Design the sequence.
């Protein structure tokens, strides 16, 4: 039996997420991984991730995991500024 409404087979490559730091402004950010180029939201610079040899600090399969690590990384970076704002 052939189903008439058979959905298209989705051949999506497995997406991962990575934490990188911009080679221009050094800000940490989350990107899809692998990715060829990325535009930094901080300095507006588009950089080639292959040419600039930016190495991800961390790569994970779920955005939740990377954002968690990114947050802790930023927290550690901001520890000196004693900035403790609770979003509410
Ligand atoms: Zn930047």
Sequence:
């Amino acid at each position: 039996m052939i189903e008439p409404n058979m959905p298209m087979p989705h051949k999506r490559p497995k997406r991962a997420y990575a934490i990188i730091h911009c080679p221009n402004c050094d800000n940490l950010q989350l990107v899809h991984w692998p990715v060829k180029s990325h535009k930094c939201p901080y300095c507006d610079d588009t950089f080639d991730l292959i040419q600039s040899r930016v190495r991800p600090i961390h790569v994970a399969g779920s955005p939740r995991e990377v954002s968690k690590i990114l947050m802790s990384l930023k927290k550690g970076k901001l520890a000196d500024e004693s900035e403790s704002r609770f979003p509410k």
Notes: The mean pLDDT is 83. The radius of gyration is 18 Å. Residues 22, 24-25, 27, 40, 42-43, 45 surround zinc ion (CB under 6 Å). Residues 16-77 form one domain.
